[in-house]
Amino acid sequence: MNIDNNGVGALYGTFTIAQKDGKLELDSYDVGSAVVLTGNNEIGRAAGTLLGKLENVSKMESLSVVQVKGVMRLTYNPDLCVPRIGDPVVVSEDGRIVRWRIGDMTPTGISGRGVTIAVDKNNCTCDVLL
Q1: How far apart are CA 110 and CA 85, in angstroms?
Q2: Are strands 42-44 and 34-39 parallel, antiparallel or unpaired?
Q3: pLDDT tens by residue, 13-55
Q4: I want to staple 53 with a disulfide (CB 3.0 to 4.6 A). Which of 31, 72, 95, 117 is the partner?
Q5: What is the DSSP string of 7-37?
Q6: Hey, which residues does 42 pair with through a beta bridge?
Q7: How far is the C-alpha of 129 from the C-alpha of 56, rounded, in Å?
Q8: Mind listing the pLDDT tens digit for each residue in 61-117?
Q9: Could you say which DSSP state residue 54 is in?
Q10: pTM, 2 dp
């Protein structure tokens, strides 16, 4: 039996996409990335506390759909703090997640969120329950 909890208990929200120099920070190539809040109902590309997983982008309307709850499969950065089972995570500037633990090398003032429930070292992904 293969266990796959990805998407269980999913809840979605709509957010605007942050702009930098008049251009949207996120586009369809970023779908599947971890995202953070950058403003009032606004998401963007930055290191920070995990809001959720980017599911859809509408460039015309500058809107996005983000999974904000449930189990989500996210890519981690193998060169930084690799998530471990039971640990919360944070988002690195490249849209991948890293483990958050007191004393680890994570940006100051950023809170960890979620629980890592599975790690796939072959594909550098992990399942996080929010």
Answers
A1: 20
A2: antiparallel
A3: 999 999 989 899 999 999 999 999 999 999 998 889 999 999 9
A4: 72
A5: TTT-EEEEEEE-EETTEES--GGGTT-EEEE
A6: 16, 39
A7: 20
A8: 899 999 999 999 999 988 888 899 999 999 988 889 988 765 555 555 678 899 999
A9: E
A10: 0.89
Question: How far is it, in rounded angstroms, from Cα 4 to Cα 65?
Answer: 22
Which residue in this structure is represented by tokens 């759909």? 65
C-beta atoms surrounding 56 within 10 Å: 13
Strand partners, 65: 14, 56
Answer for the pair 124, 74: CB distance below 8 angstroms, yes or no. Answer: no
Q: Which residues contact 30 (CB under 8 A, 6 or more apart)?
A: 45, 54, 57, 95
Q: For the chain, what are the domain ranges?
A: 11-69, 72-129
* Beta strands in the chain, from DSSP E residues, in sequence order: 11-17, 19-20, 23-24, 34-39, 42-44, 52-58, 63-69, 71-75, 89-91, 97-99, 115-120, 125-129
Q: Which two tokens stand for residue 51?
A: 């809001």
Among 57, 73, 81, which Cα is nearest to 4's?
73
